[in-house]
Design goal:
The chain is elongated, with a radius of gyration of 30 Å. The strands form 4 sheets. A 3-stranded antiparallel beta sheet has the order 2-1-3, with no helix packed on it. By secondary structure, the protein is mostly loops. The N and C termini lie far apart (about 95 Å). Helix 1 packs across helix 2. The protein has a domain of about 35 residues. About 45% of the residues are buried.
Length: about 475
Amino acid sequence: YYVKWGDGTEKEIIFNDGYPSRTLTKGKKYRIKIKGKIWRYGDDEIVNSNIYLTEVIKLGATNLSGAFYGATNLVKVPKRLPKGVYDLSGMFFECTNFNYPINNWDTSQVTNMSAMFAFASNFNQPLDKWNTSQVTNMSAMFYSASNFNQPLDKWNTSQVTDMSGMFASASNFNQPLNKWNVENVESIDSIFWLATNFNQPLNDWNTSKMTNMRSIFAGAIYFNHPLDKWDTSQATDMYSIFWKAHSFNQNINNWNVSNVSNFSYALYQAYSFNQPLNNWNVSNISDFSFAFCKAISFNQPLNNWTLSPSSPTSLGIKMPYMFYGASSFNQPLNNWNMSNVNIINNLFENATSFNQPLNNWNVSNIRTMNNLFKNATSFNQPLHLWNLSNNQSSAVDDNSDIDDNNILPLITTVPKINNMLDYCGMSQYNYQLTLVGWHNNFINLEKPSISFDAVGLAYNSSFSDVSAAHNFFNPTGDIDINFQN
């Protein structure tokens, strides 16, 4: 093909010539013409390649993927698309000044619109006339298109399989989508992530093929509409599905979560949520990390939950920070089968209302219990039936993100219980009972390398069994009533 640079020069470009370039005088406007046979115009790999592009008069290629990538000064494009265009992915990516009407474009052959307006922060033009009947990929289409708020309810989405991140960070978007046909969509991962204004009904969506439901409403702080009609039977991942969805409080107790393996951060800081979940089949879930962390209103029974008796993963079930700061939660959990759980650090930390028996828990496989009841100021239950002598622990930093990568080889024969009882509400009687009960499991066993804090708790060393148990574990921060007297 040939390139006319607009300064009187022309160059023929052949296959091996690489990317054509020319230095032009700064401050002038040039009309550059490309003529010949090309199948694609655009490149999303060359940084600043379009920074000086202000207007496109005519287009001829059928693949316009990344056509105007990073064209921050682009303000005008053709009123018509070339016939047969099938790929518009990333076309206006980071075109931060673009806001030209393109509603009359013929998009009837387009199959890919992924990231088309991503980071096009000024764009807010109608698109309701577009024919989207062939589109299969709309992922990240309006990602961070922070000004966009136009009706799209007439779009034909029947062929779309991927809507992940479609309106993520589209902070102004709030339009009806309930009539969309999403029966072929498999992933809506992060579709409304940080879509802070979005609050529209979606209950009529056919979600029967959706496997990835990660972060759907994460940070959608105003969303609060029923979702009880959703078919979640194929969903495998609900990581942070309602993370910081501060307003959401709808009944989803009929959801089928039997195939879900990841429920971590699911209701993290879902401040308003307080709905039943007791009908859920959670037997396949292996990660509950931060699930109800700071869900300050939640106080619903979970005693019907049956944890997997056999490991869904080789690393067992994780529950760190599950009820951290869930200040209203106070429900029975004593019948949970904990035999396959291995991480529960910070589980009830700052859960200031929690005070339920847990003595039936089988903690034999738990590796770390650090900060388990720290600042759980109402907790006053004995734990003397817990057998710590069979536990194994790994060097997991209790302040780090819990994932499979920071589980180190087993190095001790007891769990990490640092700060486990700090400032909890355990009475002197229950604390002594717990110490003695734990100690009894280590009789005739070598003294383990174990230490923990029990700041704010009291014991009386005048009782010989209490004194022996305390000397064995040597907790710090507690108060010897006998010594004070």
